[in-house]
Write a sequence for this structure.
C-alpha cells in the first residue's frame, strides 16, 4: 500500500475522532472568546461578538488538524497546549461572574477535548500517523501515472470536482452561522442567556456538515442529505427573520448562501462526484472480498 493510500485508510477509520477533536477545539476557543467579552461587559454580548468568535475560533483548530493529517504529527502538542490554555484562562475568569451557560461550555469543552486526545483511540491514530510519516515513500517510476487510491482517472476527477464539493461544504457551514445569528437578532436580541444556545446550534450545524462530507467521501451518496438539511434549515430560518434582520447586506447574504448551496448540491457535477465515490467504495469492497 502506498503512502497516500495508507493515510486515506487511517482517515477512514478515525474520521469520527478527528471530527470530534476539531469540534471540541473550535467550541473551546469560541466559548472562551465569548466569556472574555462577557466578563468585562455582560450586556454587550451580541451577534457581532458571536461572528468574531466564530472567525477567530475556527481557523487555528482547522489548520492544526489539517497539518496533523498531512504529516506534521508534533503539532498535536500545539492542540493540547491550546486546550490547556483555554481551560486555565476559563478557570481564572471564574471570580469575575461570567455568563453561566457559555462559561460552563468553555469549561467543559477543553476538558472533554483533553480526554479525547488522551484516549486509546486517538493515541492509536496518532501512532499510526507517526508511523506513516516516518515510513520511506516509494518513488514513482518514470511514466507511471499518479492516481489517488490507484483507481483510473481518480486524480483528474478530484481536480475537476472537489472544488464544488468544498464550496458546498463551507458555504453550508457559513449559511447556518448567518441564519442563527439572524434569528437571534430578530427574535431574541434582549435575551442574553440565549447566546449559549446560538453557539450550540452553530456547532451542531458544523457537526452535521462534517458527518455528511465524511459519508460522501466514504462512498455513501446519501450523506448529501445532511448538507441539504443544513442548507434548507438555514434558508427557512433566514426567510423567517428577513423582516427584522441586522441590515440589508446581512439579510441578503443569509438567504443567498443556502440557496447557492442547494444549487451546488443539486448540480450535475456534484451528483457525479457522489456517484464516483460510491463506485470507488464498491471497488474497494470487491477487492477486499466482501
Amino acid at each position: 500500500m502506498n503512502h497516500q493510500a495508507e493515510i486515506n485508510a487511517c482517515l477512514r477509520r478515525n474520521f469520527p475522532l478527528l471530527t470530534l477533536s476539531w469540534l471540541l477545539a473550535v467550541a473551546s476557543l469560541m466559548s472562551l472568546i465569548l466569556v472574555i467579552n462577557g466578563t468585562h461587559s455582560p450586556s454587550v454580548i451580541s451577534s457581532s461578538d458571536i461572528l468574531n468568535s466564530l472567525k477567530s475560533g475556527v481557523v487555528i483548530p482547522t489548520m492544526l488538524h489539517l497539518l496533523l493529517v498531512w504529516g506534521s504529527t508534533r503539532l498535536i502538542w500545539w492542540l493540547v497546549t491550546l486546550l490547556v490554555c483555554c481551560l486555565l484562562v476559563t478557570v481564572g475568569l471564574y471570580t469575575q461572574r461570567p455568563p453561566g451557560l457559555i462559561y460552563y461550555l468553555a469549561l467543559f469543552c477543553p476538558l472533554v477535548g483533553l480526554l479525547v486526545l488522551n484516549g486509546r483511540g486517538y493515541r492509536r491514530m496518532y501512532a499510526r500517523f507517526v508511523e506513516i510519516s516516518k515510513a520511506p515513500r516509494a518513488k514513482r517510476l518514470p511514466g507511471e501515472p499518479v492516481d489517488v487510491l490507484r483507481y483510473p482517472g481518480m486524480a483528474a476527477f478530484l481536480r475537476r470536482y472537489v472544488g464544488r464539493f468544498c464550496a458546498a461544504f463551507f458555504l453550508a457551514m457559513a449559511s447556518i452561522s448567518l441564519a442563527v445569528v439572524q434569528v437571534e437578532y430578530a427574535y431574541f436580541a434582549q435575551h442574553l442567556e440565549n447566546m449559549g444556545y446560538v453557539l450550540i446550534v452553530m456547532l451542531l450545524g458544523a457537526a452535521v456538515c462534517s458527518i455528511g462530507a465524511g459519508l460522501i467521501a466514504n462512498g455513501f451518496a446519501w450523506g448529501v442529505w445532511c448538507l441539504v438539511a443544513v442548507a434548507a434549515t438555514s434558508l427557512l430560518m433566514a426567510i423567517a427573520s428577513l423582516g427584522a434582520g441586522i441590515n440589508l447586506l446581512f439579510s441578503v447574504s443569509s438567504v443567498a448562501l443556502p440557496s447557492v448551496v442547494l444549487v451546488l448540491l443539486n448540480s450535475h457535477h456534484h451528483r457525479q462526484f457522489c456517484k464516483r465515490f460510491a463506485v470507488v467504495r464498491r471497488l474497494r469492497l470487491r477487492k477486499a472480498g466482501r
